[in-house]
Amino acid sequence: MRTRRSFSLKSTVLLIWLLILLVLLTALNRFIPYWKGRRECVRDGVIFADKDVGGLSPAEVRAVIEQVASIRQIAPVNTTLDTVNNGVIPGLNGLTIDVEKTLEQIMEAQKGEKISPVYRQVEPEITLDAYPELPIYRGNPLKKQVAFLINVAWGNEYLEDLLAVLKENKAEATFFLVGRWVRDNTAEARLIAESGFEIANHGYSDALSMQEASLETAREDIRRAADIIEEICGKRPIYFSPHRGELSPAVLKAAALENNHTVMWTVDTVDWMLPGVEVMVEKILTQAEGGSLILMHPTEQTADFLRQVIPGIRAKGLEPVSLSTLLSPMRSLGE
Fold it and tell me: What are the extents of the domains in the chain?
């Protein structure tokens, strides 16, 4: 009798435990999808584009990103002809939000974190390479940058001070070196290159009249300068500027054949005439704008001019950069 009652009691207890287990499994089965869904949602307080996206699912976040992307995208700008100077004006990349990378950052964001859109550059259909034989007088005016172009065929005694001012002000510049000068002044040429400044080609001989030179003569002069610049400075230049700004179809073709873009200038300091620091500063600050190429040389007035003009340029919301940076189609978020 006791055995039957004991067996019955054990059976009842086992049945109760089975029922409890069944209830727990049912509850767990209902909770798992909810927990999984919560785990895949954005953490609380995450901000994107001034919107709290905390708790949203990936699909919901994607919709938010796509909406913001449709508003904030910037179309690329094609390289265009410079009808004023018979030259060419470089284009600019467009900007679009990379939805997938932005979504990934939002989903991985910590609680309360603010996430900025991840942008992707979109190249224009027509780039600078479409016009290899046209000169460049300015960068794209939409860029909040200018470039100092410093032609060097003389003025060794002023170079060290000039370089010091640029470095002290963390300003970039591009030096157009005459090949013959590089040959005779290797230490000074290396100093410019080793100081981190961009080097460009100003032809081999400043005595050669480029306007009267044949295609073969012009090409040989450009190549000869490039050879000595590469040998001494360690890098072959990709930009060429003719001495005295002398242009001709033969010169433009010769530079293109040597894989160089021909570069002129937007604003000339005329510093070789020693007009005075104040005169040059006023001229440049009055005329310089986004995309300007500013021409100068190493003279006794140039370093003091740079000391004053660099802060003035920056006060106008412009930054002195290398020629390569200015002519690049890469667009910053502020442009």
Answer: 47-125, 132-327
How far are the Cα atoms of 147, 200, 201 from residue 250, in angstroms, in the given order? 26, 20, 17
Cβ–Cβ under 8 Å, residues 168 and 304? no
Mean pLDDT of 45-55: 94
CA atoms within 13 A on the CB side of 23: 6
**pLDDT level of residue 59 (50, 70, 90 thresholds):** very high
Strands (DSSP E) contained in 102-158 are: 114-115, 119-122, 145-152
Strand segments, DSSP code E, in the chain are: 47-48, 51-52, 80-82, 87-89, 94-97, 114-115, 119-122, 145-152, 174-177, 198-201, 239-240, 261-262, 267-268, 293-296, 319-321
- Round the average pLDDT of the chain to a whole number and report it: 91
Q: Does domain 132-327 have CATH number 3.20.20.370?
A: yes
